[in-house]
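Listing S7. Sequence submitted for prediction.
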Amino acid sequence: MTKPIKIVLLGSTGSIGTTACRIVENHPANFRLLALACGTNAFVMAEQIKKFKPLLVSVKDYDARENLKEILAQKEIHKPPSILIGEEGMLEVASVHGGDLLINGLVGSIGLTPTIFALKRGLNVALANKETLVIGGKLVMETARENGATILPIDSEHSAIFQCLQAIDKPYHKKVRRIILTASGGPFWEREKKDMQDATPDEVLKHPNWDMGPKVTVDSASLMNKGLEIIEAKILFELDDDQIDVVIHRQSIVHSMVEFTDGSILAQMGHPNMEIPIQLAMSFPDRFPTTLKPLDLTEVNRLTFEKPDDKRFPCLEIAREASRKGGLAPACLNGSDEGAVELFLKREISFGEIPQLIKGVMKSSRLNGDINIGNVLKINESARNKVLEIVKK
């Protein structure tokens, strides 16, 4: 019997993290949770500590740690793991001794540094945090190569492409005509632009197919999520911009496709549920049963594909332009999007103002400088702050 894969989980209380925990629970002989990190959700973290008995955990700050300690005492857990705090604590979790796989389920640019830390220790990384590749892609891929580590995509689209590409050997760009990222179109695909401008957070967060965190759901509604995925795919699979297309696929059954140079197209299909891509990233190259019922295409009945509408969804073209520019432009794009989405969720700007703010910050920012962790994080934070300053004024 093979030893269980020892997992380090960042973002353990979010949607990716809780799904990963359910998978560990379903396959106790195959996986072991070694260390966890979360933000401030001490109640869920306490349940995870009780159930999985990790060696080390980290939370966002001192208050979260004290709250967690209190809950653990109430649950009569008298020998809790070491509880660290802040970014420093999260980095210790990310580089904990004995881990086999880091699952990065964090949201935002905070995911870059722990990914680099884990890769430098030779840990394979199952990556749901798309910002890691958007802002620091070149650095991440170089670090992985230098340390013999593998990056396994968790995003359903990139997982689909990854699976399709198993049919060929690297380098991919010589054998791939294009990859086709599918997008659901979000909740507003059939609405006129003027009807979308003043959409409320409550409307935006009602995604028709997927259950995701608020940031990703807003990005899905604006199609910025697909723009970020273009950059991510370009880096992850070492492709050119003209080798990446996007189609609107309302049913979210085909998760993405690869067209090869001979004209053949391979697609990966499945329920719109993150259990499959998360579990595959955890178990690869093995495949284990999931809790999902088999996909019945006769129940789906029809699969449709449409071209994206850049006039109604300008974020997609803004992201494409940042991808073409390369360098520090994707970090600026990501930071300005983080700021704009934050303000929208706080109801301080309208949905229609998100692309306007991002485009304005992209035009006004100086994007010179070397590609290193310090610079990409600086540009990301600077762009985010510019958005906040513009609205404040």
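Caption to Listing S7: primary sequence and predicted structure tokens for the chain studied. The chain has three domains: 5-153, 159-313, 327-393. The domain at 327-393 is CATH 1.10.1740.10 (Rna Polymerase Sigma Factor; Chain: A).
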